[in-house]
Amino acid sequence: MKYRITVLPGDGIGPDVMAEGVKVLQAVGRKFGHSFKLEYELIGAVAIDKTESALPEETLAMCKRSDAVMLAAVGDPRYDDPKLPVHPEDGLLALRKGLGLFANLRPVRVFDELVNASTLKPEVLQGTDFVFVRELTGGVYFAKPKKEWVTSRGRKATDSMTYSEQEIERIIRVGFELARARKKRLVSVDKANVLKSSRLWRQVAVEVSRDYPDVALSHVLVDACAMQLIRTPAMFDVIVTENLFGDILSDEAAQLAGSMGMLPSASLSGIPVAGKRTFGLYEPIHGSAPTIAGKDIANPIATILSVAMMLRHSLALDSEAAAVEQAAESVLKHGYRTDDIMAPESTRVGTRQMGDLIAARI
Ligand code: IPM
Ligand code: MN
């Protein structure tokens, strides 16, 4: 079968890790007899440099024509100045919105081999295997209005958190569907002791739960969740939450896995159903890490595991996805490590060699 994939390497280490994701995808193509038509487009700072837009129309149009989108990272210190009219990150947000990617899945799994790579104790981490379901096209990120203005008493700025019941319902359903296919425990994270939008969130979660009597729903406040994530991470199965809470908690959780360089993500336009194809965008959760760009030291595993998620969710190629995950695990088992997950007795490898090792095991 032939698949069309839009490839968005973006900024910083983006091109470094994307090259390895593509390498592994091509190895899958050879091994399983698929053909992947890759179409490269611009996003982020590289897009601003060439077109003055962080998301050129051409990029969005190409993504819409494809079966799935692979993205590596956006962000560049040259565009950090808050006074600039456009920032690289705007491109990613516009892409998520433009493609209707409301459901962001961020699995957090502590590989046994990396149980010592975290700053947390191994006995706390053992058995950690959960997934964040982060709402991705609403909340403060897409606040209306979103503005800064000058008053007689100084400057002011606003981004308020708004959610409609439809937006909440569809993301809560994604949480329930995933939990149903896993350990049947769903934790909904909110700040219902303070925020109106969270009170609505909690009510809708309870209403939707009537359709899922087989799944245990509980509610945890976001501050308590931040604490529990590092105290007893293994107790979680599926965590569903709004956009900003999910952004913050997932970086925290990346430290359970030892490094941001280990965590993949899928951003979907619908509820994932096993064996069915859902359009989506796949990206590591880490950023563009400009200081190590082009040096062959970034960890490509998050991007490679994102390729596995793409094979599973957008192309319904489950065995292929499992092959990629097993290949990555096997390389870790054999002691190969990039700098971010380095341990004393391990073999240090660069970005390209890590990609070669994983591709060779497909
Ligand atoms: C992420 C990133 C993005 C976000 C940035 C780059 C806009 O941190 O994917 O988690 O905040 O969503
Ligand atoms: Mn983030």
TrEMBL record:
Its main location: cytoplasm. It is found in: Cytoplasm. GO terms for cellular component: cytosol. Pathway: Amino-acid biosynthesis; L-leucine biosynthesis; L-leucine from 3-methyl-2-oxobutanoate: step 3/4. It is an enzyme of class 1 (oxidoreductase). Keywords: Amino-acid biosynthesis, Branched-chain amino acid biosynthesis, Cytoplasm, Leucine biosynthesis, Magnesium, Manganese, Metal-binding, NAD, Oxidoreductase. It holds the Pfam family Iso_dh. This is 3-isopropylmalate dehydrogenase. It comes from Dehalogenimonas alkenigignens. The lineage of its organism: Bacteria, Bacillati, Chloroflexota, Dehalococcoidia, Dehalococcoidales. The gene is leuB.
